[in-house]
Amino acid sequence: MKVVATSRKEQGSSASRRLRRAGQVPGIVYGGNVEPTAVAIEHNPLYHSLRVEAFHSSILDMELDGKTVQVLLRDVQWHPYKPLVMHIDFQRVAAGERITMKVPLHFVNQDISPAVKLSAAIVGHVVNEIEITCLPKDLPSFIEVDLSNLETTQTVHASDIKLPAGVSLAQHGGENPAIVTVTVPAGAKGEEGEEAK
């Protein structure tokens, strides 16, 4: 995915207000052992890009003053009640340096799992994204979580997720958070017994 930006000299809140009035979003690009660069980006194309899931978890090609640099989206500040982007941060990416990134989880085959089919269980998605570390070339835009074998007694933890090659969980103090929980509604087991007759 691509972002077009231009570097800007003027900084500060009054310069940012002028940019926004002109339909631009102030931002910054940092990292890569280079001085941070203040940038301006057209608001409307950026707004539409931000509505695409992959924009938040993919390596982006930023065209900056005629040169292409690879960046990651790191932070977005929105207007409190208007659909306006107020400020945006990007981080430069170096091919040989591992990055830590949150990527979305896509849950599949939940409806055919034993927990749902046999026990009419309610499957709860505790989190919808997970933090990983990898080299930029290995960054997945999402991670698929296959729930086809999910049982009623089961809780799926972060360590249970099958990760793509070159990708590892970003561990914080050895924690292993729950990703999916299963709840069997009262009376559901009785219904299962009746169905089995």
Automatic annotation (TrEMBL):
Q: Which UniProt keywords apply?
A: Ribonucleoprotein, Ribosomal protein, RNA-binding, rRNA-binding
Q: Which domain of life is it from?
A: Bacteria
Q: Which GO terms describe its biological process?
A: translation
For the keyword Hydrolase, the answer is no
The Large ribosomal subunit protein bL25 L25 domain, residue ranges:
5-90
MF terms from GO for this chain are:
5S rRNA binding; structural constituent of ribosome
Instruction: Family membership, please give it.
Output: Belongs to the bacterial ribosomal protein bL25 family. CTC subfamily.
Classification via NCBIfam families: bL25_bact_ctc, PRK05618.1-2, PRK05618.1-5, PRK05943.1
Protein name listed in UniProt: Large ribosomal subunit protein bL25
Q: Which organism is it from?
A: Zeimonas arvi
